[in-house]
Amino acid sequence: MNLATAFEGAARQHAGKSAIFWGEQTFTYDQILEESSRLAVFLTNSQGLRPGDRVGLWLKNCPEFVPVLFGVLQAGGVVVPLNNFYKPSEVEYILKDAAATVVITDSSMSEATGALAALCPQLQILRIEEFASLQAAEHVPQPERGEDDLAVIIYTSGTTGRPKGAMLSHGNLLANVDSCRQMLLAVDHDRFVVLLPMFHSFMMTVGVFLPMLIGGSMVLIKTLHPPKNILLEILKHGATILPAIPQFFRSLANAGLPPDQPLRICISGGAPLPGEILKEFTSKMAVPLLEGYGLSEASPVVSMNPIQGPWKGGSIGVPIPGVEISIQDDAGQVLDVGQTGEICVRGGNVMMGYWNQPEETAKALRQGWLLTGDIGHRDADGYFYVTDRKKDMLLVNGINVYPREIEEVIYQFAGVKEAAVIGIPDARKGEQPVAFVAAAEGVHLDEKAISQHVRSRLADYKVPRRIVVVPALPRNATGKVLKTSLREMALQDLPKAASE
After folding, report:
1. In this structure, what CATH number is given to the domain that contains residue 461?
2. Is residue 384 part of a domain?
3. Residues 6+ apart with CB under 8 A from 465
4. Coil, helix or strand for 151?
5. DSSP readout, 127-143?
6. Do the beta carbons of residue 386 and residue 374 sit within 8 Å?
7. How far is it, in rounded angstroms, from Cα 180 to Cα 185?
8. Are residues 452 and 374 in the same domain?
9. CA 311, 300, 276: angle at the middle one, nearest 5?
């Protein structure tokens, strides 16, 4: 059993059924299976792809993402999803690290892929528009890929400033899909709204793999603007399950869905759900909004508030079937109810390790437990809570952003003596980075020039909302930057940044 054979089974069982709704277009299961099979044959015969070879997917949300995803898996390849907001230099690092020789993209990203081609002259760049002319698949490859074989490498930004590739096996993802199916009571007539980026681990598992492997459907949102369009698509196609990030649910609560709307569950993931948003949503909507928790290294879903209840505000809920959570101290001792420690996860969904990084893998996996880097506790009812983050990470629109990566780029700007990046709350995006910089002696720093420097090297959502030039960064007696003091300064001196 692997992801490709699981999809093939579902596709044959539901052959004529609409699998993807995309505006006025629909795509059936047999169409998607045919496209994925043609791509698998092409990759094998024309590109020489061998089982285990890595293939980058640099695509915006589009229906073709699904047959491309399964086509690579059908050929025995390993999928490397790429953030479509990344700059070519960021993509270059990931593709070289993964030793990928092929990347699949589309014509809308021709400028970016042109720059990528200059950086990676040996890279084979394929565009989805080219696949329309592929011949029908007759002898589809059937590589022997089992549950223990690598299927997907999800790159997550590391605290070292360089992304790490979390290796997810076919078994990891199949286990997580089945756990989510049980937790959501998902069946083949469910229709999942897909509005978050499909490269994101949360959306790939819950928005793509889950519906496609159970014979459900995807309501793929063509455009997010105006936001009313999302509501129209939900109503038009009878969507039943909506996974999204917290900020979206505030907009949904204020949009005024009619009483006879089709949604039965809303799932909040990707970032902590603020109590105010949950309160506002539940006061206006009859649909349960269930907070969950996960991370790429866990395929990614770990816990959720159960559909049957009780639902606890501020809690990430209980472990999904087949997954264990414990709170441990630094020595690996399991702590009691109410005690605060690191959230640790164990189960079939936990990654194989980090690609080519045995030392980082050893830090993250301890005696079968995945150390999440999040701090929290468990209550007497078995519900878990995240209270802090051990790693100095921000969540911007549900996507991990690590200050160190931004700081490293700022340090490259001429005249910068020191830099520190912290996060401030943002009503729309969850958090926003703010950078504090100090100049070298006799140097005058231009905040706009620094911002442009960062924007040219990193994805737009990583660019600090504000650049604040200070005489020196606050430090403790051992020289460590006091980021707590910087957060206080940011919230006092930049009130607009927290509320705009």
Report:
1. 3.30.300.30
2. no
3. 424, 426, 432, 433, 434, 497
4. strand
5. EGGGGGGPPPPSS----
6. yes
7. 8
8. no
9. 35
Structure tokens at 214: 């159970």
* Residue 343 lies inside a defined structural domain of this protein: yes
Whether residues 77 and 143 fall in one domain? yes
Closest of 205, 189, 202, 243 to residue 221, by C-alpha: 243
**Of 84, 37, 28, which Cα lies nearest the Cα of 56?**
84
Residue 339 lies in a domain: yes
Q: What is the DSSP letter of 289?
A: E
329 lies in the same domain as 407: no
Please tell me the predicted confidence (pLDDT) of residue 195: 94
Specify the residue for token string 């129209």. 232
Find the domain containing 420 and state its range: 394-499
> Cβ distance 298 to 349 under 8 Å?
yes
Q: Which of 328, 351, 378 is the endpoint of a domain?
A: 378
Q: Which amino acid makes up residue 391?
A: K
**Joined tokens for residue 80:** 């490397």
**Whether residue 225 sits in one domain with residue 134:** yes
Domain boundary among 378, 406, 439: 378
Indicate the number of domains in the chain. Answer: 2
User: Residues 361, 415: one domain?
Assistant: no
| CB of 61 closer than 8 Å to CB of 88 | no
In this structure, is the dihedral angle defined by the CA atoms of residues 168, 171, 175 and 177, taken in order, positive or negative?
A: positive
DSSP state of 393: -
CA distance 117 to 108: 15
Q: Measured between alpha carbons, how far is 39 from 34 in angstroms, rounded to an integer?
A: 9
Domain-embedded: residue 388: no
C-alpha span between 210 and 174 (Å, rounded): 9
- List C-alpha distances in Å: 309 to 4, 17, 83, 267, 383: 34, 33, 35, 14, 11
pLDDT for 234-260, tens place per residue? 999 999 999 998 878 988 888 878 888
Buried b (16+ CB within 10 A) or exposed e, 440-455: eeeeebeeeebbebbe
112: pLDDT strictly greater than 50: yes
Cross-strand bridge partners of residue 163: 157
Query: Please, are residues 274 and 295 in contact by the beta-carbon 8 Å criterion?
Result: no
- Per residue in 269-296, pLDDT tens? 887 888 888 988 999 998 999 999 999 9
**Tokens for 468?**
């604040």
CA 53, CA 199: separation in Å to the nearest integer? 19
